[in-house]
Amino acid sequence: xxxxxxxxxxxxxxxxxxxxxxxxxxxxxxxxxxxxxxxxxxxxxxxxxxxxxxxxxxxxxxxxxxxxxxxxxxxxxxxxxxxxxxxxxxxxxxxxxxxxxxxxxxxxxxxxxxxxxxxxxxxxxxxxxxxxxxxxxxxxxxxxxxxxxxxxxxxxxxxxxxxxxxxxxxxxxxxxxxxxxxxxxxxxxxxxxxxxxxxxxxxxxxxxxxxxxxxxxxxxxxxxxxxxxxxxxxxxxxxxxxxxxxxxxxxxxxxxxxxxxxxxxxxxxxxxxxxxxxxxxxxxxxxxxxxxxxxxxxxxxxxxxxxxxxxxxxxxxxxxxxxxxxxxxxxxx
Length: 333
Hints:
Blueprint: H1 26-29, H2 41-45, E1 63-65, H3 71-77, E2 83-88, H4 93-107, E3 114-119, H5 124-129, E4 137-142, E5 145-151, H6 156-172, H7 196-206, H8 210-223, H9 228-243, H10 248-260, H11 265-277, H12 281-294, H13 298-314, H14 319-332
Parallel strand pairs: 1-3, 2-3
Antiparallel strand pairs: 2-4, 4-5
Helix pairs in contact: 7-8, 8-9, 9-13, 10-11, 11-12, 11-13, 12-13, 12-14
């Protein structure tokens, strides 16, 4: 069975999820640690952080109230598991309810992420650092870097989908730990052991050496051509390598070129990569399906092979991949 550690996945949830976040958390990390302030009574009544479902029950182990005193610890913890931070305020009952929902969802991820509930009235510097414009707002920290999630309300399925993508982003950046039942700080993260070549690939990805990671996966495939995890890992690392050369103005120019020249395969490939990395999975896959449907020369087969690789990147069990497979079958047959 595929594990997050054995399958590094590139950022796919939203365009800010490339861990090149513009928010600088360094000032917050260096602040002195005052005593934690209690949540307001009216916030506790609304089911806000620190209260369980009414203030009389112990706090769930994978939920922490964020303060200036423990923020540095949570940033450091984000090198092991993603830390989801829910920013709330006592004047927003909806934000308290959202924290309760997030708490329950995080529990279902079995220690692969931690929830931090931050009262922006107590810790206003955090809201400023994350450029929060309204509450509730949810962000995450992965390997010390901020990852915007959503602002305002979101239903449970939307949140689960975002968290699934967040874990893929975390895995792509070497964050694949697991927190024990005692909660943050109670024990070392647990991760299943990897085959030696997969571990070599994982270590190379963590160090940013994508060529070495690709070589390790290729060797794994040479030794065992049916190694599905190595096949997927190779496709994902190759995508990450391609994305390194496209950013900012270059990405904008590439999109313009793809729009002007719909049969330019290299341009379509580049924009499909950007779409996958930016969370627009259906757009990226659909772009190549459409190209295959329009073209009948040798480039058609080249596009088909790349599309199959992107299926591995996203995950062959993903509903969006299933939809794209149906589209591919229609244009081919």
